[in-house]
Design brief:
Strand order of the largest sheet: 3-4-7-8-10-11-14-15
Number of domains: 2
Distance between the termini: 24 Å
Radius of gyration: 22 Å
Strand content: 25-35%
Largest sheet: 8 strands, antiparallel, barrel
Shape: globular
Order of helices and strands: EEEEEEEEEEEEEEEEHHEEEEEE
Length: about 300
């Protein structure tokens, strides 16, 4: 954490919120799909149920989809062949390593398989995606034998309640994240690979690069009295499109004074890098916290 003080005695603190990872055990969850908003539709295939039986339904993670979708007319549709061979994302180069990937921004690409209709293609033309804030799916999936399948219609919506981290290492870090950033597991969560003052765990939670010393969550600018308003405060910070942000304040850093959120629901603003607000106190501490979407 870095503490600074402006000429107007307005003080601020940039910090990363360490949240419980939740919903992220090494065993696959039954499904992350909402029990009500669970349907996709194809004119030639009918309704597809991504919640399925609640045990074998679709699972959305930061890196992949897994589990199954059920359609009465074609049976089970497999979203992935199991754990990707590289431990991160499916390569879709063999029958033993196929599936649908999440690029981290919610864009879904790759292949699903149904024994009765063959491959279902999550491709660029249909632009299938999941909204990181609402969990709503959008776009289309193409099936050579069934045509286009809509992930959102005027009569139904497909929604995930959670986006999981993927399987966790014993150290608490997601294994796909470790492999993507370090090429190995067993990374020390308290280590600081790039020596920027942020632990590997903090870098993961903030969505920043643990191997780039210039990439870490911090406030970059603070201006009081902007636009001629003496109590207006303008804050800017580094941000990632894969994270939500929350602004909090308190009058002193001494415990047990709690941090208080400035705007309820502010964390719903994905990828924001600035915020203007009013503060009548000239002696406040602020911090910006990064939050994983739909944890």
């Amino acid at each position: 954490m870095k503490l600074m003080k402006s000429k107007l005695t307005l003080r601020f603190l940039a910090a990363v919120l360490v949240l419980a990872l939740g919903w992220a055990g090494s065993a696959r969850a039954g499904t992350t799909i909402n029990a009500v908003n669970k349907y996709a539709y194809g004119a030639n295939i009918g309704w597809l149920n991504a919640y399925a039986d609640g045990i074998n339904g679709a699972v959305v993670t930061d890196y992949t989809l897994s589990g199954f979708i059920y359609a009465a007319n074609v049976g089970w549709i497999n979203l992935g062949s199991g754990a990707p061979a590289n431990g991160i994302r499916y390569q879709n180069l063999s029958a033993g390593d196929f599936g649908v990937n999440n690029d981290g921004l919610g864009n879904l690409r790759g292949y699903a398989w149904a024994a009765n209709v063959g491959w279902l293609n999550f491709e660029n033309t249909g632009a299938p995606a999941v909204n990181l804030v609402t969990g709503q799916f959008s776009g289309y999936v193409w099936s050579e034998n069934c045509g286009w399948i809509s992930l959102s219609t005027a009569f139904s919506s497909l929604q995930t309640d959670h986006i999981l981290t993927g399987p966790l290492d014993v150290n608490g870090l997601p294994i796909p994240w470790e492999l993507a950033n370090f090429g190995a597991t067993g990374i020390n969560p308290n280590g600081d690979a790039d020596h920027d003052g942020q632990s590997n765990l903090a870098e993961y939670l903030a969505g920043t690069d643990p191997n780039n010393a210039g990439d870490y969550l911090h406030i970059t600018s603070i201006v009081r009295g902007a636009a001629g308003d003496p109590i207006r405060v303008d804050l800017m910070w580094t941000y990632k499109l894969t994270r939500l942000y929350r602004l909090e304040h308190r009058p002193t850093l001494s415990p047990p004074t709690p941090w208080q959120q400035y705007v309820t629901g502010f964390e719903s603003l994905l990828g924001w890098s600035n915020y203007a607000f009013h503060d009548t106190s000239s002696n406040s501490f602020y911090r910006v916290e990064a939050v994983r979407p739909l944890p």
